[in-house]
Amino acid sequence: MTDSWDTIADWYAELLRAGSALNDFNRDVLLDHLPDALSDHHVLDLGCGEGLIARAVAARGASVVGIDPSLRLIEHARSAGTAGPGTVTYTVDDGCVLGTVADDSVHWVTAGLSLNHVPDLDAALAAVRRVLKARGSLAFSIPHPCFEAPDATWTPVTEGAVRRVIGHYLAEGFWRSDNPQAVRRAGNQHRTLSTYLTALLRHGFLLEAVTEPAPSVQVAAQQPHRSGLPPFLVIRARRA
Ligand SMILES: C[S@@+](CC[C@H](N)C(=O)[O-])C[C@H]1O[C@@H](n2cnc3c(N)ncnc32)[C@H](O)[C@@H]1O
């Protein structure tokens, strides 16, 4: 069977709810780019999955809409609910279209580890720009494209030590991992760093922050091979 986000949805929801240090870390470094208090703010969470980031944004008081093309993940998100004080609703939608989201309607768009899944980055950025209010911002994270390129491996170098060996950094496009335990068995759209940055500029975004956070203590404990490399690239960009 060829996996998709719908076929791995139950596995992914279980992975996060059991406690994935890497996904929790991604949520935290992304939310570092948003204000602590978000009451009166409308936020779109693009590619919300089972709602990990949408719930955390609502905990800051925002009214959040989470969209995702996977109905099964949206069902998981709905069943998790939210503790407030903000609100969250979830809708099936495609981040390249955002057909359920009105023009000029949100102060923030968050996209945690999801723009690396949209097949058309230009369409997604055009849709994000359309739904953002004037001076609204997009905050997104992606697996660091320089280290998470197609066919990258963790290769033993000495007893107990491994190094990241980069595969095909310049090979942009769709690829999928053949590791049955990897998230990217459902596929991934690899793009270079310059492709992301130039697309943001082309769509009229101003770069406000670019971060490459070192793994947290929790990530290093769960995945020691990751020490010394930033697992994610995080960018905040404002609608000019
Ligand atoms: C790694 S998961 C991240 C989910 C969530 N943001 C999180 O941090 O747990 C990637 C998500 O991107 C979603 N996705 C795939 N294609 C998409 C598209 N065209 N538009 C929006 N989201 C998409 C998947 O369904 C999945 O929920």
TrEMBL record:
Classification via Gene3D superfamilies: Vaccinia Virus protein VP39 (3.40.50.150)
GO terms classed as biological process: antibiotic biosynthetic process
Q: Where is the Methyltransferase type domain?
A: 44-140
Organism this protein belongs to: Streptacidiphilus pinicola
| A GO MF label | S-adenosylmethionine-dependent methyltransferase activity
Q: Which InterPro entries match?
A: Methyltransf_11 (IPR013216), SAM-dependent_MTases_sf (IPR029063)
What protein name applies here?
Methyltransferase type 11 domain-containing protein
Which Pfam families does the entry mention?
Methyltransf_11 (PF08241)
